[in-house]
Structure formats: structure tokens, C-alpha cells
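DM from R.C. (forwarded with permission)

"hey, sorry to bug you on a friday — could you get me a structure for this? deadline for the figure draft is monday and I only need the backbone to look sensible"
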Amino acid sequence: MGDYLLGKIVAPATRVLVWSAHSGRIQIFTASGFMLVNSQSATGSVRLARGTYSGVRVATAASWSLELRS
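My reply, with the result:
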């Protein structure tokens, strides 16, 4: 629930990051400040290019979930 340092996401190929946040406001970004998600929606998805995303942090005031799909 709330803000959380997730760590590293490794995408060996293009992946889809699916999120849900009960408050409807969520940001997901890397340590370098690269914004993966900046959404007011309770659910959504974004395509991640192949690569390593370091220091991934989730910022939201409510409970949330993430799923990485191929």
C-alpha cells in the first residue's frame, strides 16, 4: 500500500506492465527519473521496451498491484 521502492524490472523482450491503484492516481518511475506511468486511471497498461529498469518506484496513496505480461 502506498509508496514503494520496487527495485529492478528486467524485460528480456517487449513486455506489458499492467497496473491497478485503488485511488485512481499512480506514478511509476525509475531511479533516473524516467516516468513509466503517470495516470489518474484506476487501471491501465503500458508497453515496456526490452531493457533493465533500475530503481523502480511506485507512488500512490492507496493500495496497488502490478503485473508484467509477455
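R.C.: lifesaver. The CA atoms of residues 1 and 36 lie 19 Å apart.
me: no worries. The two ends are 25 Å apart (CA to CA).
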